[in-house]
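Tokens in:
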């Protein structure tokens, strides 16, 4: 692992097109060479810093709609490796929390550092996102103490973590609203426990996190009233996940096309053809781009469209990877071929929070 880069790009210094070109270059070279090792469990810290230095985690800083550029950056990463695309989402989401926090002290200390990759980390919002929809209760509990909160509890999975990383989390507080804050993995009160091997995503730095009477100072609080904060930034949180789906689907379409020469004469009998999948993807990208124009739209109609787009992203990722397998046949079934990896990664897009079943529950609970 290289030393942390002191380079922190400012919003003004970032030219999105140049950043995207640089992300694509790193993805096509170094990430491509490392994708299999990452799939097999290597956490790519050096690559995360290279993407950070390129400006990949600062694309959504600044005025106006910058979510679209951040999504395109993650799409270019996920086109090669969805594990790394997911870690980029973890990092970008950590930055998104800081962009939207009203705590000037937290922003001053952590925003540029996270956007520049000087601080790496992620988000532990699966449990709160489920708790807000009555699926489970909050796993972290906090007590107000002088200058901050004392927090304890266990989270089963948090990704893009390491001994010096940070993540955003929400804890319940007796007699008050849940609070959202940053947690520092380097604090002795925080223990990272390795998870059992997964179907994919083993290189994503995913740990169970045990928090034992951790003192969280006020300067690390992102929002003293987490519910309102989550409502404000939830569309961005969900839309940013589109990068994983878009990149993965692009590669699935590419794989279908790669075998058109040798297998097209028989593959044309398959139900889903690459042109058709490319049309689905283009429609999906257009809808996400439109939604990215107004990430703070509070209307129920807007929220329904965001949830619908997220549902489609999971479903179409699985469909694209399934059909890429059918097109590639035996050559896609060998361990060294990326096709079977894409299939395993696609299921993650459909089960990471908000998972397909939660999205369906949310749509069911919305007014018609
Ligand atoms: C590789 C990986 C990375 C993840 N990274 C993050 C992250 O960075 N941040 C984050 O907030 N969430 C993370 N998650 C969690 C993820 O977002 C989903 O919450 C999870 O996949 C389950 O969602 P679900 O809605 O299908 O719930 P379900 O699977 O239906 O139910 C989940 C609940 O079941 C229990 N449970 C089921 N299996 C286990 C198990 N093996 N160990 C412990 N408890 C279990 C837990 O109470 C859990 O809350 C990660 C999950 C995976 C597999």
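Residues out:
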């Amino acid at each position: 692992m290289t030393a942390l880069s002191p380079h922190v790009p400012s919003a003004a210094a970032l030219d999105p097109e140049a950043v995207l070109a640089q992300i694509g270059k790193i993805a096509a070279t170094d990430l491509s060479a490392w994708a299999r090792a990452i799939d097999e469990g290597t956490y790519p810290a050096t690559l995360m810093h290279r993407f950070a230095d390129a400006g990949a985690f600062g694309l959504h800083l600044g005025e106006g709609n910058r979510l679209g550029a951040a999504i395109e950056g993650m799409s270019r990463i996920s086109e090669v490796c969805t594990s790394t695309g997911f870690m980029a989402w973890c990092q970008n989401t950590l930055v998104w929390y800081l962009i939207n926090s009203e705590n000037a002290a937290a922003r001053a200390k952590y925003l540029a550092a996270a956007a520049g990759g000087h601080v790496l980390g992620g988000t532990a919002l699966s449990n709160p996102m489920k708790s807000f929809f009555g699926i489970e209760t909050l796993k972290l509990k906090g007590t107000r103490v002088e200058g901050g909160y004392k927090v304890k509890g266990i989270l089963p999975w948090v990704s893009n973590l390491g001994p010096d990383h940070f993540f955003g989390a929400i804890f319940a507080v007796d007699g008050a609203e849940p609070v959202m804050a940053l947690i520092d993995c380097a604090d002795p009160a925080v223990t990272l426990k390795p998870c059992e091997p997964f179907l994919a995503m083993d290189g994503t730095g995913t740990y169970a996190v045990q928090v034992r009477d951790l003192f969280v100072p006020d300067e690390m609080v992102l929002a003293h009233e987490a519910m309102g904060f989550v409502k404000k930034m939830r569309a961005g949180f969900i839309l940013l996940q589109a990068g994983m789906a878009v990149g993965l689907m692009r590669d699935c379409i590419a794989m279908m096309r790669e075998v058109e020469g040798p297998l097209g004469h028989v593959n044309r009998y398959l139900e889903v053809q690459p042109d058709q999948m490319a049309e689905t993807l283009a429609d999906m990208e257009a809808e996400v781009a439109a939604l990215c124009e107004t990430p703070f739209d509070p209307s129920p109609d807007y929220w329904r469209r965001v949830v619908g787009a997220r549902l489609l992203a999971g479903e179409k990722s699985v469909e694209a990877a399934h059909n890429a397998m059918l097109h590639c046949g035996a050559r896609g079934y060998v361990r060294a071929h990326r096709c079977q990896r894409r299939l395993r990664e696609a299921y993650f897009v459909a089960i990471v929070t908000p998972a397909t079943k939660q999205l369906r529950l949310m749509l069911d609970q919305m007014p018609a």
